[in-house]
């Protein structure tokens, strides 16, 4: 209803020219609307966004949801629908789901997610299944899945990760350490450069004799 100088008292049992509805008919909810410095009563079948219907022996009222970022609520402290961009979780609204819970985008709700245990200690530094013979290797740590997610579509966090490490023993006991293949490649490149330089020098000498 739109109120001007003479309020429209639709659904009212009693009404004031200046303040609109004062009491409502049975089953309707009394809602006190505020517009700037002015306020007036309305009788509604359902409460507007951000309010919930509170039924009392005296009169049914629209009471404000006290939950932050809530669009509609079941009671003062339990939200049933959050504002756009927020996830609903146990009657509250969140920008992101709490730890241990995953977001269902289609419903904008938080459900039981995949829980994992603590990381193990880092394993032995190795390379090609060897713990010596190289300067650098990889070490790995793992963790176990403690609780599977409520839905198969919800992924679990990674349960294994590796990082670069320096081997404790670069030279294997009783073995002769060989230079990496990169060193051989450098020698081969150097040899090719020398051969190319000698060839260019021979061409230059031949050209110089011809010109004479």
TrEMBL record:
Residue span, Spondin-like TSP1 domain: 114-167
Keywords: Developmental protein, Disulfide bond, Glycoprotein, Heparin-binding, Secreted, Sensory transduction, Signal, Wnt signaling pathway
CDD domains xrefs: FU
UniProt GO molecular function: heparin binding
Locations listed in the record: Secreted
Major location (coarse): secreted
SUPFAM superfamilies, per the entry: Growth factor receptor domain, TSP-1 type 1 repeat
Boundaries of every R-spondin Fu-CRD domain copy: 9-110
PROSITE patterns: TSP1
Pfam families, A to Z: Furin-like_2, TSP1_spondin
Top-rank taxon, per record: Eukaryota
GO biological process, one term: Wnt signaling pathway
Compositionally biased region (Basic residues): 176-191
Region Disordered, residue ranges: 173-212
GO cellular component, one term: extracellular region
Family to which the UniProt record says this protein belongs: Belongs to the R-spondin family.
Protein name as catalogued: R-spondin-2
Organism of provenance: Tyrannus savana
Gene: Rspo2
């Amino acid at each position: 209803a739109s109120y001007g100088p003479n309020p429209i008292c639709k659904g009212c049992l009693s009404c004031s020219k200046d303040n609109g509805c004062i009491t409502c008919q049975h089953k309707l909810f009394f809602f006190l609307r505020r517009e700037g410095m002015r306020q007036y009563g309305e009788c509604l079948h359902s409460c507007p966004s951000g309010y919930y219907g509170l039924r009392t022996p005296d009169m049914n009222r629209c009471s404000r949801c006290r939950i932050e970022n809530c669009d509609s609520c079941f009671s003062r402290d339990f939200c049933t629908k959050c504002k756009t961009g927020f996830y609903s979780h146990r009657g509250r609204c969140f920008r992101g789901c709490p730890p241990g819970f995953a977001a269902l985008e289609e419903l904008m709700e938080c459900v039981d997610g995949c829980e994992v245990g603590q990381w193990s200690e880092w394993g032995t530094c190795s390379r090609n299944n060897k713990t010596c013979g190289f300067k650098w290797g990889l070490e790995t740590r793992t963790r176990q899945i403690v609780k599977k997610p409520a839905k198969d579509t919800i992924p679990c966090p990674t349960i294994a990760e590796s990082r670069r490490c320096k081997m404790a023993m670069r030279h294997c006991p009783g073995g002769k350490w060989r230079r990496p293949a990169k060193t051989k490649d450098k020698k081969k490149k150097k040899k090719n450069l020398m051969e190319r330089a000698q060839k260019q020098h021979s061409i230059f000498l031949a050209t110089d004799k011809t010109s004479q």
